[in-house]
Amino acid sequence: MTSEWWRTAAIYQIYPRSFADANGDGMGDLAGITSRLGSLEALGIDAIWLSPFYTSPQKDAGYDVADYCDVDPRFGTLADFDAMLEEAHARGIRVIIDLVPNHSSDQHPWFQEALASPPGSAARGRYLFREGRGEHGELPPNNWESVFGGPAWTRVIEADGTPGQWYLHLFDSSQPDFDWTNEEVREEFRRILRFWLDRGADGFRVDVAHGLVKADGLPDWTPPQGSGSMGGAGGVTVGEDGAGVALEPAISEENGDGAPYWAQEGVHEIYRDWRRVLDEYPGDRVLAAEAWVDPLPKVAKWVRSDEMHQSFNFAYLETPWNAASLRTVIDDSLDAFGSVGAPSTWVLSNHDVVRHATRLAVTADNPQGHGLGPRSKGIPEYADGLRRARAATALMLALPGSAYIYQGEELGLPEVIDLPDDARQDPTWFRTNGERYGRDGCRVPIPWEATAPSYGFGPTDASWLPQPAQWAELARDRQQGVPGSTLSLYQDALRLRREHDLGSGTLEWLDGFDADTVAFRNGDVTVVANTGSAPVALPGGTVLLASGELDGSLPADTTVWLRA
Ligand code: GLC
User: Fold this and answer.
1) If phi over 0 gives left and psi between -120 and 50 gives alpha, with beta otherwise, what is residue 501?
2) Given ligand 1 and candidates 352, 430, 440, which is best to mutate, with the most ligand atoms within 8 Å of its CB?
3) 207 in active site
4) H or E stretch including 67?
5) Which of 53, 94, 136, 456 could be joined to 452 by an S-S link, Cβ 3.0–4.6 Å?
6) Using a 6 Å cutoff on CB, does residue 352 contact ligand 1?
7) Do 453 and 461 form a contact (C-beta atoms < 8 A)?
8) pLDDT tens digits along 123-159
């Protein structure tokens, strides 16, 4: 394994609930992951990132942690984790785990102790308890809203049975925010980092890495219109004809960047501290930030040389399928991350966004976090969405830097639109009374074998979210070794990416191509993506990879890699 592997790595996100279920209870588990690692080795990825598998009441699918140093029985045991890690390492796959430092679960012993302790106690001081406003403290301490909808404060009942203080939760009421000015909290997270580093974890994806520190005095704040629900990135605006128009970030220097709970300067000292902890360990351990912050030069602050190694590039994820917008965001990304000596990252899908096989072709406004469901407008035909998604992936995997792949995108899975209301589990759905569908549609357990129960997700038919009947056709065994399948496209792209060192290459824009194309050279590979609706001329050279059939030209929504 080379040093600084993370600069060029292809990192595959596993959502443990939905990847593979060894015990047949309908929820994925660590033993399931271990049993399927061979498929990921064959796919050709360098590392996996696992969403949380810690002890948790699962009010937010595990992003509500009750014990940071144990495995939830739904997912297995610490021994299962060790076995999974060993198997991954034996296959040359690094393992990044999720760290959730902004908030715990309300079932965490610290929060339970805080509830049982009086106002002003040390136990309450680990979280953000405040007196309410109004004559009897009946109003929340400020006007902040939860990312999932509704107020960001919940009032507790004190030991004497009367309504008392309020606690802050930027997300669900079951996810109380820690007070990061408290040294005890800081020390506890150093301990948690060391616990997993000692076990051999290769790094951490840091949840809500822009949220830990809040402005002094917790001042009122009203977000600008159109803010995305993940607290930073707005929805992608899509033109009436389905072609994307410019990205509209909800939070930017101009339109009111300055939420007193996002991107406060104080977060950076925390990450410098963590970096010192990681640097005590051998073997290139990494920190990757989930920071929904805009614009890109600001995101780059998370990856200065003494902070984290990577930060997700949500500006790229939110860019519509439009050549001019893509060229701009690629330039901006390489500039911003390059200016601090960090690799750019690239990502199109994860467990919080509409799958890109659907999203890139949606023709109606769909703000981030709202999700899609039966009442949504502008849902594309599957084939149209997939065609565009394959072209977008082929473009992404040719870019220099590190790329993230979300489980199931290599099968061409679309967003599941028609989940029954009573199956939905995202707190967003409940906190907005069904006004926002939330994120369940990208979290449906993935298909492995077309004819097996639950398409091979587990040994039984059980699946915590229902799988669509059409997914038999998309099962891995139907695509493995089939030329032209989406799985083959991903496998070929990842192999070629490695063979041609595209991850460590340099991008050089090519002139003379149609305005609807993104055309560049990376080392000895020429890449042309046609985002328009008409075919364009295919340049000369040997075709290495094509995201769709080439008929002598480069058709709409198709990307090609050529060797000159
Ligand atoms: C991050 C996670 C998301 C979770 C939220 C609260 O954005 O990716 O799934 O709901 O944090 O922890």
Assistant:
1) left
2) 352
3) yes
4) strand 67-71
5) 456
6) yes
7) yes
8) 999 999 999 999 999 999 999 999 999 999 999 999 9
Homologous superfamily of domain range 5-102+182-479 = Glycosidases (3.20.20.80)
Distances (CA, A) of 156 to 119, 148, 161, 407: 11, 20, 10, 39
Of 100, 141, 101, nearest to 119 by C-alpha is 141
Best of 17, 63, 206, 292 for a ligand 1 pocket test (most atoms within 8 Å of beta carbon): 63
What's the CATH code, domain 506-563?
Answer: 2.60.40.1180
Q: Is 187 a catalytic residue?
A: no
| Joined tokens for residue 51 | 């969403």
Regarding the beta carbon of 230 and ligand 1, being less than 6 Å apart is answered yes
Q: What is the pLDDT of residues 208-245, one digit of tens each?
A: 999 999 999 999 999 877 555 444 433 333 333 322 22
Which residue among 184, 187, 279, 280 is the active-site one?
280
Query: Measured in angstroms, how far is the CA atom of residue 97 from the centroid of ligand 1?
Result: 14
Supply the CATH classification number for the domain 109-168.
3.90.400.10
Per-residue model confidence as pLDDT tens digits over 471-513: 999 999 999 999 999 999 999 999 999 999 999 999 999 999 9
Ligand 1 atom having least distance to the Cα of 60: 10
In angstroms, the Cα distances linking 481 to 265, 377, 491, 492 are: 50, 36, 10, 11
Give start-end residues of each CATH 2.60.40.1180 domain in the chain.
506-563
Q: Whose CA is nearest to atom 12 of ligand 1?
A: 63
Contact by Cβ (8 Å): 128, 102: no
What distance in angstroms lies between residue 319's CA and the mean position of ligand 1's atoms?
A: 21
Residue span(s) of the chain under CATH 3.90.400.10 come to 109-168
Q: Is 467 left (phi over 0), alpha (psi -120 to 50) or beta?
A: beta
Q: Quick check: 489 and 560 in contact, CB under 8 A?
A: no
> Does the bond joining 101 to the residue before it have cis omega, within 30 degrees of 0?
no
Q: From the CB of 207, is ligand 1 less than 6 Å away?
A: yes
Q: Is the CB of 60 under 6 A from ligand 1?
A: yes
pLDDT digits (tens, 9 = 90+) for 163-211: 999 999 999 999 999 999 999 999 999 999 999 999 999 999 999 999 9
SS3 402: strand
Residue nearest to atom 4 of ligand 1 (CA): 63
Pairing of strands 10-14, 402-406: parallel
Q: Which atom of ligand 1 is nearest to the CA of 171?
A: 6
Q: Has this prediction a pTM greater than 0.90?
A: yes
